[in-house]
Amino acid sequence: MVIRPILLHPDPRLRKVADPVTGVDAGARALADDMLATMYEAPGIGLAAPQVGVMKRVFVMDCAGKDEAPEPMVMLNPEIVAASEETVTGEEGCLSIPDVYENVTRAAHVRLRWLGLDGRVREHEFGDRWAICAQHELDHLNGKLFIDYLSAVKRTMITARMRKLKREKSRA
Length: 172
Hints:
There is one protein chain. The chain is of the alpha+beta class and 172 residues long. It has one domain (12-171): Peptide deformylase (Peptide Deformylase), CATH 3.90.45. It contains three helices and seven strands; from the N terminus they run αβββββββαα. The chain has helices spanning 26-41, 128-141, 152-171, and strands at 46-48, 58-61, 73-83, 87-94, 97-107, 109-115, 121-127. The chain has a five-stranded antiparallel β-sheet with strand order 1-2-3-6-7. It is globular, with a radius of gyration of 16 Å.
């Protein structure tokens, strides 16, 4: 497993729609292993392939609590097949936008369908943190960031802060 560098906003790759995965092979499994290792190292609860510069429809997540056993999930070509009308608003952050947390409103429950690493199609309903994380990561696969749910003024301020952070990191 390799810890991959996480792209920082603004990076044009974070705004592109990812391509479908055409099959489960050793490359997909290695990518999933790398992404899980990178997510845990960051630390985070979710990571989408575009965030590590791979333009494929893959994300990983593990929303188990601190005192719970890890529950890593790998989703290839995920799609929401149903979403509740009930919404929840909560603070979100993103590994590609470090140290920024803002309230976002999303569906409280979602039913996802995806391809597992075993090549089987799976479907499951998620709630709580799992539903929020799945929607956040699926947005990444569609070139959307959580800051897109904020006002234009807040987005502009956050983007300016991220540009400054990237300049500082490039000098270090």
